[in-house]
Write a structure and sequence with these properties.
253 residues, alpha+beta, Jelly Rolls, six-stranded antiparallel β-sheet, four-stranded antiparallel β-sheet, 14 strands, 30% strand
Length: 253
């Protein structure tokens, strides 16, 4: 009986050792992986803007913010003080934070009969700001910011530079922001979302209502949506075709 217990104990010891070794190897591989995907859902600043009054919209539209690269104004500027803004975590929907209204309007109906849409300009625009740092050791990597969903018409800036625009609240989108990153310093990401016009005929949120990701890759990498799989299932066997795209963004091939 003692021999049996010794054998069982030894077997458990071996299994635990193997598991610990595999876990350590997995963690080491993860740390050395050329691709990192980091969640950016926490510690955002939020404030309502205005769809009709620039003064209540942090001066948006009163300056030529698209005329010169990096020439942002108001809440777009990195040095803008947002300490009075509300701190939130994503996903976030500012429409559901308001009381119901009994208004026969398509914009209002699409947002669950909340005061959102052209009839309610004071609660139809939302601003988001987030500060984050990228270590100096990441210099040379490609940096991408990916939004899983923002409702609805949104503009995105990084460190005062206009990065891009997305019009649909139902599709994810992403930007390569490598050229605008301050490595080893603070970076400021700004999103302005406008839900003046509804998109569908069912409930729509207002704001960054899905996750946001920071993706780091080597210059030589598989891009987002870079792998395509096709299958052909037959009676006795199946064929699988895999196509992978590789992007080389090194200065030299």
């Amino acid at each position: 009986m003692k021999k049996i217990f010794r054998s069982i104990f030894f077997l458990i010891f071996v299994l635990l050792t193997i598991q610990e070794t595999n876990l350590a190897a997995f963690e080491n591989n993860l740390k050395s992986s050329p691709r990192e995907k980091l969640l950016m859902d926490f510690g955002w600043k939020f404030h309502l803007g205005s769809a009709s009054n620039p003064k209540d919209d942090f001066g948006y539209g009163t300056e030529a913010i698209f005329a010169k690269a990096g020439d942002g104004a108001g809440a777009i500027r990195p040095e803008f003080k947002d300490s009075s803004w509300r701190t939130i975590n994503l996903p976030h929907d500012w429409a559901i934070e308001h009381d119901f209204v009994n208004v026969n309007d398509g914009d209002v109906a699409a947002h669950g009969y909340r005061p959102v849409g052209r009839q309610f300009p004071k609660t139809t625009v939302g601003w988001y700001r987030k500060s984050f740092e990228i270590p100096s050791a990441d210099l040379g990597k490609r940096i991408t910011i990916k939004f899983d969903g923002v409702s609805r018409d949104c503009n995105v800036w990084l460190n005062g530079h206009f990065i891009g625009r997305n019009l649909s609240g139902y599709g994810e989108f992403f930007f390569d922001v490598t050229d605008y990153i301050n490595f080893g310093k603070k970076n400021f990401l700004v999103v302005r979302a406008d839900v003046s016009n509804y998109e569908g005929w069912f409930y729509e949120g207002a704001g960054i209502y899905r996750h946001v990701w920071l993706i780091k890759t080597d210059p030589l990498h598989i891009p987002i949506y870079g792998v395509f799989v096709k299958s052909n299932v037959k009676e006795k066997f199946a064929e699988v075709e895999v196509e992978t795209n590789i992007i080389n963004q090194y200065d030299e091939s």
